């Protein structure tokens, strides 16, 4: 039997997940079908419920639905609970389980694959959406010297900084307030790169 999986988002055409998971399945001898699933805003629950009813086993969740997935899940991991964002849904034993693997994946890429330590570094995290929310607990667990969240809407960055303040040294700012600051690691957690762009960062922020 071929298990059915998908990645759900809006937009979704950019996703490389079907290729990545198909290669993984081929290399490990897994029989699975993996597709892209588009959902209109406000239709997340409806589209996911139809996917489950059709035999779907699990979903990866991308923007802008990670908050929707958190609310949709019946049980969530500790990381998902802290971030209030879910990027992985699995359907088994009649229940919906939610997890967030964004932070683990990001930290492993930086620390293991790029051989760049996060501990003691000045980290700038751009954006204040579900992607940023999902990586904050794991990033802060690496004990950076400081972690600054910068966002166009400063109030959103300030809300995240307040929510996660108990986990480490965290600050919030607008992009223009970064002028004159320098950071060791800069992470783009915004959706601007989908259009090949970057947030409006001032020059000279890289230490």
Structural Rg: 18 Å
Average pLDDT metric:
93
Order of helices and strands: EHEHEHEHEEHEHEHEE
Helix count, per DSSP?
A: 7
Tell me, what's the shape?
Answer: globular
Q: Approximately what portion of the residues adopt beta-strand conformation?
A: 15-25%
Termini separation: 53 Å
Largest sheet: 6 strands, mixed
Report the helical percentage.
Answer: 25-40%
**Number of E-type strands:** 10
Q: Largest sheet, order of strands side by side?
A: 2-1-3-5-6-4
Uncertain runs: none
Alpha-beta classification: alpha/beta
Helices and strands in order:
Blueprint: E1 3-9, H1 17-28, E2 32-38, H2 44-53, E3 56-61, H3 66-72, E4 75-76, H4 78-83, E5 88-92, E6 95-99, H5 102-113, E7 122-126, H6 130-141, E8 146-150, H7 154-163, E9 170-173, E10 185-188
Parallel strand pairs: 1-2, 1-3, 4-6, 7-8, 7-10, 8-9
Antiparallel strand pairs: 3-5, 5-6
Helix pairs in contact: 5-6
Write a brief structural summary.
This protein is an alpha/beta fold. The chain is built from 7 helices and 10 strands.
Q: How would you portray this structure in words?
A:
The chain has 207 residues and is of the alpha/beta class. The protein has seven helices and ten strands. It has a six-stranded mixed sheet, with helices on both faces. Strands 9-8-7-10 form a four-stranded parallel sheet. Strand 7, helix 6 (130-141) and strand 8 form a beta-alpha-beta unit. The protein is globular. The termini are far apart. The mean pLDDT is 93.
List keywords for this structure.
33% helix; six-stranded mixed β-sheet; four-stranded parallel β-sheet; 207 residues; alpha/beta
